[in-house]
User: What shape does this take?
Amino acid sequence: YKMLDVGSEDYKLALHVWEEIAKSWSFWFIHITPIVLQNRFPCVKYYTHMSKLISLMKTSIKLEITTQEIDDLEQGFAEWVEEFERYYYQFKEDRLAVCTLPIHGCLHVAKDLHMCGPAWVHWTFYIKRYCLHLQTCLHSRWHPWSGLSRVVLYTAYLSQLSVKFDLQDELKDLTPQRGEQELENERSFKHYPEFVLQTLCHSNYVPDEDTRKRIGVYLSQVLRGQRNDLTLHLPSAMPLWGKMRIIGGNSIRTKYALRGMSSAKYRDNSFIQYEVSYSDAGGSQPVDVISYGQLDKILVCELGNHKIYRFLCNTTLILALITPCKTDGTDALISLVGYKESVAPVVTDVQNIKAVVGQVQTQGKIFIIDR
Assistant: This one.
């Protein structure tokens, strides 16, 4: 870096590691670095120093931030810069080049947040807004460049038409807001206002006996009834959906829908974060547990009017069959969460699904990336 060696320290990473970092700097640094660089440095103090910066960056870009958090940022950045100088500058004149302007700028972040509010209010520039416009038009994660080219070309077409024929008013509302309109292949349900199902796989899908038993287990927990009796009265057929989207959030595919799809064209967005409530030891206070797993299937279950269903009579449930990852309830937003195996599938309501998560496999484990 800057044609300098490591001086009296030992923090150098291999060239191929830096090449991977450069491909997607911000996302890679915040979400993937803590996983793949764990135990990679010759000394753990460099990893700890890097992790501090990641934590400070996450706090800096929060949509809402308190005065106390800003005060903590001011102290945190000051301590981080002091450590940076000790590790990399080493107080040597010939190493002054490592003290770049962004390092000094870290000392002013807290002051800017104090005076101007959260970062999203004032960290905005024209070119960044244009890039956001391009990003919202991307649909292919594997072949983005051809899509970008089309968006730039068609935007230029519309711009010229608007100027030549005075179509500003007609074109300003040309792009509908995603999440406000239901598309042709989508279906929403009255009691699930935040979820839209996409891609119907089988309208008369008949779940196997194991799946029916797991649905019975879920209903027995909700209704406090007998699993066998509830399973017996389930409808024989349940529409099977392959994809859903959370309005204002993520699109999620099921493992079933990904069968036979080329990994070169489609990303695996079937791994999710979900929350399940359990009763505590006394049985009085419910406890929410954050879990991660793979969404196997989405089933629409039309419950009949049998008295065994009690308050759920004649209701429609959208159920998710999930294969949980063995993460012991650890929150990946707070600490690194890795797992080596999955556990038996469970059924829960899709309203318990919160977001899509990513995965990185390294050092004999699969780690969760939860944004």
In short: The chain has a mean pLDDT of 84.
